[in-house]
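$ ./design --mode recover --in tokens.txt
reading tokens...
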């Protein structure tokens, strides 16, 4: 059954889904690879649509797959589908340009984080609503991290207590994200990085283990396990 979005919601969610998935190995674009028999993108959109504040979802699909993605998502939720770009940043910019007037909060969420719980979408949006201009979900770093130089020689050990692993959805006041993209230079892999360059403070909220990004085949196997376990 098609989910209903909230016409009085204040959140637009942009879903960059135009990547190839090179690290996952040969096959379809990553967002269309199957997890429990359904594309990663379907899982991601279903969970976004289940978040109560979501008014609009815009998906940036591989240019050759726009019509196929429209058909794929029609039974899942009402979504706008645009063609993505060569870099993630261009895909996000294309999706941002397609957000209709209304929502004051914009979240950017990787299709590859297919099992992200709706509660994380809501907690990031709530922190923006509470007054933070930019919000990212983070987890503590569990491994010791070392900086390594030429010849695989260790240069030093980084203080782990000051490090965080960053996930999506990342949330922004709409005007803040639009200004950051308008001023963007070299492509970055996350939107908070663009906003940081504008001097805007970025606030961290607790992330979720279930928001893992499917990047390599190990992650896909883990996601299969989590889905079968009911997540
Ligand atoms: N993405 C996008 N447009 C691009 C590149 C990436 O919309 N030109 C999206 C991906 O579809 C993914 C998210 O950005 O949902 C995070 O990117 P990543 O995990 O790096 O996915 P891919 O770029 O597809 O994977 P890889 O880097 O292994 O090719
Ligand atoms: Mg990539």
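writing sequence...
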């Amino acid at each position: 059954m098609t989910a209903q979005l909230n016409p009085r919601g204040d959140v637009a969610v942009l879903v960059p889904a135009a990547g190839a998935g090179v690290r996952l190995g040969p096959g379809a674009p990553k967002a269309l690879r199957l997890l429990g028999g359904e594309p990663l993108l379907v899982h991601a959109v279903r969970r976004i649509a289940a978040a109560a504040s979501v008014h609009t979802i815009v998906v940036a699909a591989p240019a050759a797959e726009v019509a196929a993605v429209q058909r794929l998502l029609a039974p899942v939720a009402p979504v706008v589908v645009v063609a993505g770009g060569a870099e993630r940043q261009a895909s996000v910019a294309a999706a941002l340009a397609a957000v209709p007037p209304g929502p004051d909060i914009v979240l950017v969420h990787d299709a590859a984080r297919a099992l992200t719980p709706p509660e994380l979408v809501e907690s990031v949006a709530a922190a923006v609503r509470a007054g933070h201009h930019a919000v990212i979900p983070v987890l503590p770093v569990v491994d010791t991290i070392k900086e390594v130089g030429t010849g695989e020689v260790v240069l030093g050990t980084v203080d782990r207590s000051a490090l965080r692993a960053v996930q999506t959805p990342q949330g922004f006041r709409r005007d803040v994200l639009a200004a950051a993209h308008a001023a963007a230079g070299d492509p970055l892999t996350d939107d908070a990085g663009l906003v940081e360059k504008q001097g805007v403070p970025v606030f961290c909220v607790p992330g979720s283990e279930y928001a893992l990004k499917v990047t390599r085949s190990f992650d896909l196997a883990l996601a299969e396990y989590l889905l079968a376990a009911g997540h």
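exit 0
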